Amino acid sequence: MYQRKAYAVITGGSNGFGWEFAQLCAKDGYGLVLVARNTQELERAAAELRDRYSVDVVTLSKDLFEADAAFSVYEEVKSRELPVEILINNAGQGDYGSFADTNLQRDLDLVQLNVSSVLVLTKLFLKDMLAQGHGRILQVSSLLGQIPTPLMAVYGASKAFVLKFSEALAQELEGSGVTVTVLQPGASDTDFFHKAGAEATKEYQEATLSDPADVARDGYSALMSGDSRIISGAKNKMMAVLTNLMPDSANAANMKKQMQPTDARNRPVHGDRESDGSGNA
């Protein structure tokens, strides 16, 4: 039997940043609630975490593209009477292409996953955290959340929501015992570009990609310190400073160049685009 203690709820918890967050939480003795679509991947991750860290791991196979899924996650956690101390809203995806040409349903799905599910889970778990007088929430945004992102317009806009939403909550919650931290990774070596159909871009093939483990450590450290915002990596911090000095029109033009296709093939593809899981850039 596992010792009962506080739990961390992690969306997109079976791979990428989510897998790294899960290990960090488990190492500190938190029980885990991992949320993702792929049951097989969830059970594989759960078995490894139980074996390695001797913590309780609850798996919830939920598709956060669906409007009722975030509510269902919360209801199942409550029905199990799990004491939640940490919520990590990690799951997120993008889609590559001109907005006029991308699929409208896919656009709406991205808003559901990247915005609506984050809002719902934050609202519901936050109320419980406030009632208990303590808790920590980590929201995974993106460096792209602070600049216009041509050819991934919906993704960039959705991450801008997460960024500004989280910064506002951090101020609202000062002195409450509950903290909200927003993490801004840059381009990282997850399956994000694969799921977005953006593996042929300069940004993926030619840029230096961050290690997901390093990004997760930065985010987790900031979460546990109660920081309101963290940009992961020295290079990305510098990029954030530079983009703040430039007009949005210039940032958009630079980003559009980075999102153009390239003949370089420095990195392999990750397999079937329709595989499960979530990633962020």
Automatic annotation (TrEMBL):
Residues 251-281 are annotated as: Disordered. It comes from the Bacteria. The keyword Oxidoreductase applies. The keyword Glycoprotein does not apply. Keywords: Oxidoreductase. Residues 264-281 have a biased composition (Basic and acidic residues). Belongs to the short-chain dehydrogenases/reductases (SDR) family. This is SDR family oxidoreductase.
